[in-house]
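Sample 1 of the test manifest.
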Amino acid sequence: MFQFIPMQAEISLAAIMVILLLADLIMKEPHNKTLQTIACGLLVVQIILNIQPSAGEYFGGMYNCTPVASVVKTILTAGTLLVFMQAGEWISSPDTRHKAGEFYVITISTLLGMYFMVSAGSFILFYVGLELASIPMACLIAFDKWKHHSAEAGAKFILNSMFSSGLMLFGLSLVYGTCGTTYFADMAHTLTGTPLQILAMVFFFAGLGFKLSLVPFHMWTPDTYQGAPTAVAGYLSVISKGAAAFTLMSILTKVFAPMSDRWELMLSIVIVLTITLANIFAILQDNMKRFMAYSSISQAGYIMLAVMAGNTQGTTSLIYYITVYIVANLAVFGVIGAIERHTLGDNYANADKVEGVQPENALSRSEETVKSEYAVSRSAYAGLYRTNPRLTFVMTLAMFSLAGIPPFAGFFSKFFVFASAFNAGHWLVVFLALVNTVISLYYYLLVVKAMYITPNDNPLPTFRSPWLTRASLAICLAGIILLGLLSSVYGGIEAVAGL
Amino acid sequence: MNILSLFVIVPLIMLLGLWLSKGINQVRAVMVAGSTVLLGLSVWLTVAYIGLRNGGATEEMLFTASTPWYEPLNICYSVGVDGISVVMLLLSSIIVFTGTFASWRLQPMTKEYFLWFTLLSTGVFGFFISTDLFTMFMFYEVALIPMYLLIGVWGSGKKEYAAMKLTLMLMGGSAFLLIGILGIYYGAGAETMNILEIVNHKIPTEFQRLFFPLIFIGFGVLGALFPFHTWSPDGHASAPTAVSMLHAGVLMKLGGYGCFRIAMYLMPTGAAIWGDFFLVLTTISVVYGAFSAVVQTDLKYINAYSSVSHCGLVLFALLMMTKVSATGAILQMLSHGLMTALFFALIGMIYGRTHTRDIRQLRGLMKIMPFLAVGYVIAGLANLGLPGLSGFIAEMTVFVGSFQNPDNFHRVCTVIATMSIVITAVYILRVVGKILYGTCENPEHLKLTDATWDERFTVICLIAAVAGLGLAPFWVSDVISHSVEPIISAIIK
């Protein structure tokens, strides 16, 4: 496999983090725009350097990167790039622009954690990666700390995250106790499915279930998404979910394979619950970010369907699903972020003039809460088609893709996870998941309805986002349309997954 | 390149053209040019098809082509047509062509309207040319989703409710379909998605028992199978004219076509097991739809229920499983498509003038708008099966064919279903008498004018098609019955 140095992806990403940290120190403020360009450029370099799937085993098997894991890393990096492209406008607001550097550095450090997670060959490295991905995430969620919600969300996230890590660590200690090793490779033939090991597996599953926000471990998700800055919520919903889903699948199918009967039953119950409950709750939401939180919970359920298969077909459809989900969901979050910015508009435009000082016409706290609530509510989208047809178009297609309507990519990704789970014999689960797609279509259509049909006398005026945001939305749109129609994407992933 | 692919490529080019066009005239130009090309293509295809058959071509499907798409799952983009799909393509292109003229003066957002309209027709054409289950299903869903916006944005009355109900019910049907398709695919041994190849595999009986009803209901929802027909009256009543035409005229035929081509053809054992159950449901559709139409007061509701009844007759005839009845079913699809389109076009034109569809408020339209009124009478007569028009040919073939089934249960069902002919006459004549004749007392209505040139053109095209089918039915029924034969013999084998 093509590689300059061992662990190239991790090392180059760490280097990017250091470069950004230094750039943040050296450059004169305000440098948020330049920094964004540098961060995006460096991530493009990172993607190009690691586009070729690579493999390697180091530290006696502790780090074990398979070709398919390296593809996942590239996909996650590309998703992060999209998030960075969309974050520019939000990070330029007076409250956050002085800490723009931190945003990029911390995000990349969580990404590095995910790199380690997906290429771990031992539970120790896996756990380290997981923590590296979770703890800085709390800082990101609380990034808008002047906003009450954001701080609250950060606290909720860190508490839940620690609790789930604790659960998982307990499970892992039981595994170690019964097997005497933490290496995946050695574990395969010592795990036999004794009651203690089953208990361990359940604890481990619960821990990752928190990260993936599967029901019944999903309670933190809506509050966190609502409070987190929109770009961070987008990152949380696709990148960290994608990494966790892939890791869960590889550990369940590689390490806990002897207990597959047990976890398949458990997983099928969890999937049905996840999809159904999340769909029912999503219907009731008016706040777009809470809505997307429930939508992402239900999408996690669909991703888990691919785990049920546990073979090459399952791996392929899982990675394909994640890819499609990244573009569609980030398109939605990009639009939500843009609309939020421009609904809040004036307040920020004025504040731009005076550095670090609150503008005279700043809103009082309660007014501000009301306004920022409105900016992400579905009512803000009413009649949007008349003023911002292009943005509406992106949003509509993204919603159709999330709902699984052809010819958009979401249809193909859903079909492939259904096919893989069906092939593994889980007909009933597939059937229930399919029935749920109809419910999900209902709430996705509610957004479309608001934009096209609901009358509104003063819709949000026409606006133009920065070019990086527009470029990211264009990439997402291209992904939504082309990822499904071009079969080479699926074929390419399949070829790597089969290695 | 395969000639059939043009049926998808032309609408795609139209979409591009519409997207680039500015102003209503350019939009109209693109639509007229595109739909004329499609109509020409389908006429050419019909002629070429008959030519090939007369020249001795014996393959089940002609013009076949296949390109691998998702190779790991053996999904191909494969196309091919037999007599059934040829006439369906002809029907669709006629409806799209006339639908363009029926929405000539549509406001507002004309461009967006035609964009979704064309996307819908892409789905319809793609569905009829596909022979690959996955591709077929994809096109099927492409045809469904534009409906939501077409009704929701440009509709009238309870449009939001109707649009959501229609979309969710049809998508619910397609959820059943998808699991059924997976069942067929893995049941047949997962080697191919091509219908023509799956037929040669024996799908295990337990698979057929489980997945036949799923597929049949999945398509049956679109074919207005009782009790899954309730989207149809609301949807049709709220939809704008051309969308009602396309929906009742073509989309509902997707249901019957799918039931026949996928459910019954690929799973004959399943059809034998479940046939009687679904026969009862379709008989209810036929009679219940007709009875419901009698008591409606809204012109569009009357026609929507009439469609339930007539589309029920399609599924009914298919389940009779004789060659003649299946031929009748396809003829009925064709005939119903044309005359319902005509009906909805006329109702749309009348509604556009009077702003009411309530038959209690309309009287004496024959004097005020003679052209539209005469068109309405012709559509009504076709609907109740007057010889010389298409309805007669279709229903005659259906009932004669159905009675050929020697089973007593089937014959009883046939006798019950024949009742619908009488009831159809009741609701058609009631409407014609009420709204067209008598004296108009509403001074507002007296000022109204007759049809404009685009409306006349729409109506004349459709009447010509209806009368053409009624006067010269044999070439069509020959085309159809030749293709029905292999499917029916696979079922009764």
